[in-house]
Amino acid sequence: MKNKIFMYLFFFALLYIIFQYMNEKTIFESQEKKISSLTEKVTKFKDSINTLSERVAELDYFTLQGNENAMVYLESSGYEAAAVEALVSDAIYEQNIVKGGNPLVPFEGMEGEMRVNKVKFLNHKWLLADFTDGTYWGEMVLEYTFNAENEMELNTLASLLYPSY
Description:
single chain
């Protein structure tokens, strides 16, 4: 009887070990599948990030902060690029509070006063500005310079008003 109990215990232990082995094997295989799919996703996302980084670098070229030559020009004149951007942007936006609309915008507002909404610096001399009166909108190219007394001068070089449809 004692031998039969040990034999049954042995078979039970053997079945339990086989069950545990198979269970762990399926868990291991499913984890391997998850790891491989996540590795593929990481690779795909890294490629996407690299592509987007290259695109950002390309688009950033025509900005004051992204154009090394423009930054060197400003620094040689004694200015910081970020400070110039802030100074010029503030000066343009401050013109929005002038009665009759922003004097830099060469169009009269038909539905209100023309105001500059957004500016984008191209380099150390020019910037693009978007303006609107609430209904009609347009864009303009502005030139900014600093004279001998370090006073900023803003000039509108070109502008357009989009037709309403």
